[in-house]
Each structure stands twice: as C-alpha cells, then as structure tokens.
Amino acid sequence: xxxxxxxxxxxxxxxxxxxxxxxxxxxxxxxxxxxxxxxxxxxxxxxxxxxxxxxxxxxxxxxxxxxxxxxxxxxxxxxxxxxxxxxxxxxxxxxxxxxxxxxxxxxxxxxxxxxxxxxxxxxxxxxxxxxxxxxxxxxxxxxxxxxxxxxxxxxxxxxxxxxxxxxxxxxxxxxxxxxxxxxxxxxxxxxxxxxxxxxxxxxxxxxxxxxxxxxxxxxxxxxxxxxxxxxxxxxxxxxxxxxxxxxxxxxxxxxxxxxxxxxxxxxxxxxxxxxxxxxxxxxxxxxxxxxxxxxxxxxxxxxxxxxxxxxxxxxxxxxxxxxxxxxxxxxxxxxxxxxxxx
Length: 342
Description:
By secondary structure, the protein is an alpha/beta fold. It contains 7 helices and 14 strands. The protein folds into 2 domains: 66-148, Immunoglobulin-like; 154-340, 3-Layer(aba) Sandwich (Rossmann fold). α4 (232-249) packs parallel to α6. The longest helix is centred in the first third of the chain and has 39 residues, at 2-40.
C-alpha cells in the first residue's frame, strides 16, 4: 500500500511538471510575437498630437487685411507681408456669401481695386499663393467690408517755408500730376517742435490742421530751420511723436517723410551746423523703416557735384528754392506718388 502511494505521488508530480513546462513555452511564444509586432509597427501618436509628415508645411493664411478709400470709386486693400508667399490674389463681392471676383494679383502688400460704385457695400478677402494663376483650396483671409461713398482724394504737404512755396501760384501745382485735392499746411520758421506747438492756422497747430484734413497722403517737410543748431536725435524724436499722433487720428493716411534739402556752400559757411543735413536724412530714413512709413529723398536734382544746392535752383539766400526748382520738384514727387499706388 505504501509503495503504491509513492508511485502515485510521483505520477502526479510528473504531470504537474509537464503542465508547467507547457505553460512556460506558451508564454515565450506570446512574448516573441508581441516583440515582432512592436518592431513592425510604430507606436501610435500621443493623445492630442497630429500624425503629419514633417516635410508638409501648413498653408499660409493672409492676415491684417484693411480697407481704405483711395479715390472716387477706388478702394486700397492692404495686408501683412508673409515671407513664404510670392503672390497675393485679391477678391471682392457685393455680398458676403455671394460669388467673388478676382480683382487682381500682386507681389506687394497692397492693391487698389477700381471702378467700384457709390452707395454700395463691397466685401474683400486675400489669398496667398506661390503661383500667379488662381489656386483653389488655399485658406482665405478674413472677409472685410466697406461701403463706398462719394470721395475725393486729398494730398497734404506739411512743413516750413520751403514747403510753403509749393502752394505759390504757378510754382509747383501746374507741373504736379497728383490727382484729387492738394493742400499746403506750412509757414516760415516752423520746425519739428513748433509745427505741433504754435497755433498759427486759425487757432490750430500745424499738426492739428493736418489731422483735421484727414488726407489720403501727407508729405512731411520739416527740419531746415533747426538743423544748424539742434541735435538730430531730438529732431527725430519730435518726428516720431507726430507720426504716432497722425496714425492715431488718421490710421488710413499714408505718411511720407521727406529729406532736408541741401544748402549752398556759402550758407554752410555761415551756419556750420548744416553739416548735419546728410546725417539727419539717414536717420530719417531709418525712422521711416522702423515706423513703417515712407521716406522720400527727392534732393538729387538740387545738388551739385559737391552736394551743395545748385545756384540755378537757389533763391539767393542759400537755402530757399526759386520757381524752377519747384517745377522740377513737382515732377519728381508726382512720379514718386504714382509709383506708390501701382
């Protein structure tokens, strides 16, 4: 009996060991299979991530689209520049959800849409593309709208006595092809400080008068009356303050900062501080770039080989211009003005 139990226990132990061995072998097979599957397929993306190939870039969407009146029946559309974009396609429609027409294609960050009707609301959007031909599927900018009302473009020339001469009968206007109304807000002796502090325009300062005109574009011509004794940095600071004031009151006004004109050799001898003129002009150009305004150096035709005011354009006092200089200036500024709107 004892021997029989021993044999029975041995038999059960053998069966148990066999079962454990089979189970271990099965586990090894499962582990190997899982390992193979892991090597064959990448891990799924983490929650919230997008499985997009790294080489694919997101399409560009134009931002900062703004509308402003430019002339009768014309709207200027502007937007922010994007480095990855070559062409911009401007579309418009009379209905927000209507059919949009292509107004034009440009590489610039502005476009003037013409032949629009008064008392009509127009909707606009801009598409960015690498191609000149229209491409569908690109994300459009936000739609913006404006109602067309009777309008006449207005250009203002603001500054000192040199600027004042632009408005003299027969001097500049007959040679100026700038369309719309033209105004001169200038007076002898004004500088970058007194233009916004002296109330000589029917109780208004030059800056207040300028803002009240709400011009489409303003050409700022200040600095000659102080360049020989003031620091250029102080003059630039005054200009900066005036630009901010104009921008706040008239956000649609184009601001053009104009270089100071050259003086004669004799005038520089009388006022040695005039050596600062080219220094100031360089700083004014930098300011225009920083504040995203425009800078116009029209002075090339006025200078002789030494950089002084040519005798044939001088009014005789060393820095004022004669009528022939204004006629030439009018043609130069007209070409520049037209080029800005292409």
